[in-house]
Amino acid sequence: MIQVAPILLLSLLSITFLQSGYDKIKDWKGNVSWLKGHFSGTIFANTVPLALFIILILEIFSGVLCVSGIIELFSNQTTEVGYYGAILSCITLLFLLFGQRIAKDYDGARTIVIYFIPAIIAVYLLG
């Protein structure tokens, strides 16, 4: 029997990270420019492009693993790839949370936590 809850959670994570990654690629300069202001006066002030690139890679890999996990659930009803996608999603969100806290953007940090909750649930259900 196909597990609906993990598929829905992996779908949420896939959409979140693949769209975010696409946005970073599509408007790289705009993102770098905005983030330089966001992180001015922090330890990331001089490393914004590198930090953004790391986040981009994490988001793309998270999204791809989650999509692959959905395919795996449909094709052979195993959860290994989805499990690793959910774990990487949590790690990615922790990186984002760390950045928001460093920037003292507490509303942004709160938003990250909203995404973290379903990611943790996905890890639990797929583990």
From TrEMBL:
The chain crosses the membrane at residues 47-71, 83-103, 109-126. Keywords: Membrane, Transmembrane, Transmembrane helix. This is DoxX family protein.
